[in-house]
Amino acid sequence: MKHEMMPGDIFMIPLFLPSYQEWRGLEDLMDYRRYQFHSEDVFAFGRLIELEAGNLNLVEIFSYVGRIPNDPKILVRSGRMFAPVTVVGVFSRERWRFLFDDPNYDKWVDSDYRNISFLLHSELWKGREKIRISQQERRELKESGVCDMVVHGGVDLEVKIRSLLTERGMDLNYEQIVEERRNEYPKPRDVDKKLKEALVPFRWQGERGRYSLSLDAGTLNQDSFAKYGMLGNGYDWEKAASAFAEVYGWNSRGRFHFDCEADTFSMQSSSKKFLKEFALAFHKCVMDAGEFEELLKG
Description:
The protein has helices at residues 73-76, 107-110, 135-143, 154-167, 174-180, 193-199, 222-227, 234-247, 272-286, 289-297; strands at 10-14, 43-51, 56-66, 85-88, 97-100, 117-119, 123-126, 129-132, 151-152, 203-207, 210-216, 257-258, 264-269.
């Protein structure tokens, strides 16, 4: 990718990257900078019309779909697949890559900028000008084909393009190709790697809105439990964690629940921040035999 994006730059849009399969997670966050796209694939293409603040960009998508051409005029002359749209974050990890630049590009002439329109709540955005409109005018504009201003990610716009191509009779064989290439795609970065290492022998698992801290019973502090007539099973670990939460005020700082079995301690929360802070503090206590025995002693 070029170091500096400029209006008029033409980019390719891959049509054979994963969308939202469970085994991929949040695909928009994947880094494709080292990924080698297949040269024989068909791609969609677009042009950067305007750079916005916050990694937002106004773009137009061309009707041409096929292999990467040598001449960008082939793309431009094909016209638009649909009206210009606003996208976010599609270039930062090179999911979409720039191919051609045009130092002579003029958005007013080349992309008819003055007639690019979006509907806002009570306004019409047209060529950057915001015009107050009535609800009746809004309905009429929408019926005429003017769309609401929506910010698209790369994944959902690719889905839209594939859907349009399918409606037009183009068979991409998308699911099969993606499955065949499953092992080629970049692996997700483990954002919790350092946390997991810091909490050993506890296990940390997390996904958006669901986080857990667990431990196999019998692997840690068995002598301390025995000293106070306890087995050191999952239920005893729950008692220890509950006592720690009570002593240090964690009960009032967030919501959590236990799901322990005889052989496993498990603590869960919907708040990553809360459980992470608790886990680090509890781990520190557990790894200090004297402090842990004081906790059990109660």
